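Entry type: protein chain
Record version: 2
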Amino acid sequence: MKKLILPSIIIVSLAVLDQITKIWAVNYLEYGYPVKIIGSFFMLTLVYNEGGAMGTNIGSSNYYLVASIIILAVILYYLYSQRENKNLIVPLSFISGGAIGNLIDRIAYGKVIDFLDFDFFDINILGYKLDRWWTFNIADMAISLSILYLFIIILFNKQEKIIEEKPIE
């Protein structure tokens, strides 16, 4: 169980930090009105997302709630089964903490609170055009960066076995 102390701290800390920042955003930002921090590159803009990551909307709010619970359960199971694997426990903990932060929003409000508004670069692929990046939150950032980290680890660590296959004790 000692192997689960660090993941537990990360998960709880991230979920709490995410909720604190969202409470601040709801209390101090006006819905839909951006507050410029670094010109139009970085603004704080309170919005509510009933869909999924990066503006996807393939189902109802309940669909995303149920999907989030199932995915979180799978990730927590996998985190437990890979608790000896240092390459996986930290990013899976950040993904879990972020998922819990957004899940709290979905349960409490039926939508996710977003407020970090960046304008990185425009995307224009096969007719899909995005002029401004999606507004997101601390949980989204933790999830996205952890997935990117896992992708890089898997891509560049071909010599080292990333996923340990062993039975659960």
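Comment: Residues 2-155 form one domain.
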